[in-house]
Structure prediction request, 155 residues.
Amino acid sequence: MKIILFRFEKEKINFLECDINAGNLVVGDRGNVSLESVENRGEKYNKVLDELLRIQTKYSAGLFVYQSPQKYMGKLRDEEGFANSAILHLFCHKNNMRLLELTPKIVREKLSVSNEEFKSLLEQEGDTIRKSYSVAKSDKIFDGLVFLSLLKNII
Prediction:
């Protein structure tokens, strides 16, 4: 199954093409889209929608997944990232695309493991991702890739 993993920042959309085949995660193209050139929020959100359509058309993904900007329960720390992910939800709804939000809580619940076991799994999978795909822990899309890898047999 073709998957596009997203991470939204204030002025950038990071994405990574992945494929899950027989329980194996294959990492493909990666890229980002700059939103700095747009002059107002209306243009920005139109550009986000246009870029999502371009990415969907290019990769024919069956699932979009994204790292949630909501790291702190009940607190909105990144308004722009939240707005961009809301646009992603709108795009997927209008285009009948499957969408999965990746947060520690959602991934832990899908795996049905305790907090302690989950932390251990994250550390082990993070090491595997860094070695297998040469992705640095500081990479913007690293956490999402670790979460996706943990869910590769469930998705």
